[in-house]
Amino acid sequence: MFWRLVSTLGILFWAVMTGLLVRDTYFPEESRFAEVPPGMVLDMFLTHRGSTSSMLLFRDDAKIGCANISVTADSVPPGQPRLYRLRGSGLIEGMVLGRPGSSLSWLLESELGEDSQWKRLQFQSRLTPADGARGEDDGLLTMLSWKAGDALPHVELREGGRKILDSSMVATLLQGRQLPLAGLIEKGSAAGNATAGIAQLTAREGLMRLAGKRRKCYILTVQLAGTYQIKALFTEAGELASIDLPQGYRLLDPGINDLAPVTEP
Fold it and tell me: Which residues, at least 6 apart from 241, have a Cβ–Cβ distance to it below 8 Å?
């Protein structure tokens, strides 16, 4: 009887260890961690550095720009939903859209409800060519704004001060399905939310490597149109360490990350 019990316990131990080995080998690490409310991660970030992070922008090992990321939230009575205001601004220099010597400045302002639904989005960027005079009407200016209840965002594109695209033109192109993501935008418009299905926000626990060690972190993910992902990694204490962007771009906080030597473009 004793040896039968020992054999049973041995088989159970082997099965558990084999399952752990298979999970570690074939499944992503972050799949082992629980999902958390995005607002929980933002609340932790609010307790650090006045809720602002100054970051460096890299592509591969080359530093090509900088950015400031901040989050604020109004104090509300217990039980009332919070509204988070996310703001980002930055500059990319050297090579933008294949144009040597050009620069791109950008500004993003948004409001996010505690229910993880976007309430307002506003984006503006200015692409200045290498030989540009950097005047108010110089370069390529992009403006996009949307608020909850709008079927479609307001869009305007100007080059050299001349309007080359606006919301009415975009609506015409959508009707003819001549724009990428037209189907997703139309689906969101029918629901009264142009961001539905295009920019979805989730958060979960995960692991990151800092100072050569694996540490627990929180991963805030924005899924763009089901194709692209933006992943923001926060330390266990809520500090913003890095943001992984599409096409090999990455924002890093030099005060948190042990950055290796980099090369200028």
Answer: 208, 210, 217, 233, 234, 235, 252, 253, 256, 257
Per-residue pLDDT, 107: 94
pTM of the model: 0.71
Strands 199-210 and 162-166: unpaired
Could you say which residues of the chain have pLDDT below 70?
1-33, 48-51, 95-99, 131-138, 170-198, 225-226, 257-265
Tokens for 262?
A: 């980099």
Q: CB-based burial of residue 243 (10 Å sphere; 0-12 exposed, 13-18 middle, 19+ buried)?
A: buried
* Cα angle 222-68-156, degrees, rounded to a multiple of 5: 65
Query: Taking the CA of residue 8 as centre, how many other CA atoms within 13 Å lie in the half-sphere pointing to its CB?
Result: 5
CA separation for the pair 220, 35 (Å, rounded): 10
Per-residue model confidence (pLDDT) at position 11: 56
Report which of 119, 71, 108, 47 is spatially closest to residue 245, judged by C-alpha positions.
108
Which structure tokens are listed for 134? Answer: 């950097």
Environment class of 180 (CB within 10 Å of its CB; exposed 0-12, middle 13-18, buried 19+): exposed
Closest CA to 106 of 245, 232, 239: 245
